Recover the amino acids of this structure.
C-alpha cells in the first residue's frame, strides 16, 4: 500500500523548489550529521544533539521528521511539495546521502529521488488533501484513506464517489434495479470477458 507525504521546500530556510523540480529530488536539510542509511534512530538522536542545540521539544519534532524521511518513506510512495498557490506531486525513490551538499550554506545532503508526475493549483485538490497541506511542517504523512491506484487522479477535484452520487440522481430506482439484475446474470455467463465487464460495472456502482 502506497503512502502520501508532504515535504517543505525550504530546508535550512532557503527556497529550493526550483532545484527540487529541475534535479528531481527532495531534501529535508540537517547537514553535519552524516549518512543516515542503515543508522538507528538512537544514533541519529546522538548526532543531532552533538550538532544542533535543539530543545527537548524541538529534538522530538526533528527526530520525527527524519524518521519519516529516512525510514518510513519507501520507494514508490508519493510526495506533495507546495509552491505558492500550486502543488507538485511526485513518485518517491530511495533515500541517499550526497556528501557534496553536506555544508551549512547548502545542506541538501539527505535526499530522495523524485519522478514528478503533475503540477496543479491547490484549489483543484480534494478536500482531504487540501486540509492535509494546510498544516505545514518539514515532513508529514497523510493519514486519511488512500486509493489503491492512480493517486494522481484521486488528489484532484471532486471524488469519484461524489460524481457517482450526482449521476445516480438522474436515474430512477426501478431502472437501476433492472440494470443490476442484468449485470448479476452476466456474472455467471460462460463468456469470461462478459463476466469481467459485469464485475467491473458492479464494483464501480458500489463505490
Amino acid at each position: 500500500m502506497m503512502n502520501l507525504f508532504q515535504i517543505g521546500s525550504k530546508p535550512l530556510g532557503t527556497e529550493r523548489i526550483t532545484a527540487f523540480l529541475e534535479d528531481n529530488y527532495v531534501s529535508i536539510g540537517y547537514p553535519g550529521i552524516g549518512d543516515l542509511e542503515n543508522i538507528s534512530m538512537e544514533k541519529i538522536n546522538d548526532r543531532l544533539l552533538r550538532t544542533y542545540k535543539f530543545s527537548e521539544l524541538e529534538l522530538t519534532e526533528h527526530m520525527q521528521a527524519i524518521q519519516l524521511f529516512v525510514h518510513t518513506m519507501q520507494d514508490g510512495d508519493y510526495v506533495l511539495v507546495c509552491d505558492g498557490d500550486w502543488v507538485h506531486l511526485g513518485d518517491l525513490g530511495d533515500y541517499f546521502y550526497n556528501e557534496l551538499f553536506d555544508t551549512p550554506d547548502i545542506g541538501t545532503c539527505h535526499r530522495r529521488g523524485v519522478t514528478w508526475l503533475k503540477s496543479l493549483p491547490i484549489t483543484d485538490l480534494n478536500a482531504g488533501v487540501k486540509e492535509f497541506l494546510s498544516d505545514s511542517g518539514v515532513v508529514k504523512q497523510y493519514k486519511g484513506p488512500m486509493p489503491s491506484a492512480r493517486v494522481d487522479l484521486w488528489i484532484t477535484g471532486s471524488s469519484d464517489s461524489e460524481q457517482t452520487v450526482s449521476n445516480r440522481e438522474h436515474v430512477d430506482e426501478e431502472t437501476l434495479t433492472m440494470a443490476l439484475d442484468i449485470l448479476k446474470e452476466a456474472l455467471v455467463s460462460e463468456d469470461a470477458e462478459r463476466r469481467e465487464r459485469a464485475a467491473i460495472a458492479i464494483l464501480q456502482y458500489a463505490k
Summary: The helical segments are 17-23, 41-51, 56-72, 127-134, 151-154, 160-168, 173-186, 192-206. The first strand starts at residue 4 and ends at 7. Residues 158-170 have pLDDT under 50 and may be disordered.
